[in-house]
Amino acid sequence: MSDYPGRVETGLNSRENWWADMPPRTGRGPRPRRWVLFGLAFIGPSLVPAAVDLATDGVTGKELVIAALLLFYGSCYVLFPLSLRPSRRKLTYVFSVVMLLIGLTLVFLHGNNPYILIYATAVLAFTLPPAWALILDAGALLVVLAVHLVIGKDDFGDLVAVTSITAAMFFMANLVRAVRKLEAANREIATLAVAGERERLARDLHDILGHSLTTITVKAGLARRILESGKDDTRALQEIREVESLTRSALSDIRATVSEYREVSLPAEVAGARAALRAAEIDADLPHAVDDVDPALQRIFGYVLREAVTNVIRHSGAKRVKVRLGKTWLEVEDDGEGGEAMEGNGLRGLTERLDAVGGTLTATTPPGGGWLVRADVPESALRSGVPAPLSEPAGGCA
Questions:
Q1: Could you tell me the pLDDT band of residue 120, with boundaries at 50, 70 and 90?
Q2: pTM of the entire predicted model
Q3: Contacts for 73-77: CB closer than 8 Å, 24+ residues apart
Q4: For the segment 147-170, what is each residue's pLDDT rounded down to a tens digit?
């Protein structure tokens, strides 16, 4: 396992990778059918001379056995990609071991020439987990070395060359494994990035439309009641103008959100909250300035204020709302019905925003009733410079 969350282990620095099968291909490299042509080109230098010898020197029993084994051996090399399907895992192991045994047999039947073994050791490097490939390839080469020593052969140049080529194939196979794992990780990252962007856009649109449509609904209802009473047409006209202005502002915010240029401002949210609460006929005790709030927290506190005021208008039945601000905290308290805290999309989204800067969000019912929402960010978190995530967390406003 990796020591770092999210890290993809691609090399042989983990035990898991030593015993892992080759990852599935991702569309690159030769397809199994095309590999037949490449395989024939690679196996040809061994098959063609043997065929020429059989045609010119006559056929003996030993040569027929060698020819049959070479034909089967070459067929295994050409067709080995077909054994790599996940559903044929056992077949892959049997296939690789049989091919290695045939390669060893051909070495001893063909004058102890170890070069013929390269095809089997290369196949094992690409079909078996690295640990098994290393064990079997090294074992086969040690068997050849032992036979050389027993018969007194003192020229090990061919065996050294075969060992070097086998090692190269082993590390090339592990490079292929690493590339395939990285490509799979890149596909997963792309999928997560798309999902994260969808969640960010959905939450921000929910933030904008939830607040704006709530305010528009309240103002439109107020204008209707004024018009029905016939008492103050001027006030009704003013409310309708504000509805129009809010609609234009919401459209502008939606365009800016889609373009990732929308910024939430705490002063603007205070002003918006004042207008929305006035239209809902809720007394508002709001701060006249936000200079006391740390500049790094004004944007996120703007989200908190917007969500809290929207919930007051929608759900609380409150007659009065009080907002208090500090350097690293914000409280919104109302005298509404209160009740048990139910974490919806809004509270969950705000909690995730505050988590990103090391803060907390609490929503409680005070002893006197109503509802109290408090956002608090310790000064230690500000001093440590906790970075905000590259994409905003999931969630939204209730």
A1: very high
A2: 0.51
A3: 73/99, 73/102, 73/103, 73/106, 73/116, 73/119, 73/120, 74/43, 74/46, 74/47, 74/119, 76/102, 76/123, 77/39, 77/42, 77/43, 77/119, 77/120, 77/123
A4: 988 888 878 888 999 999 999 999
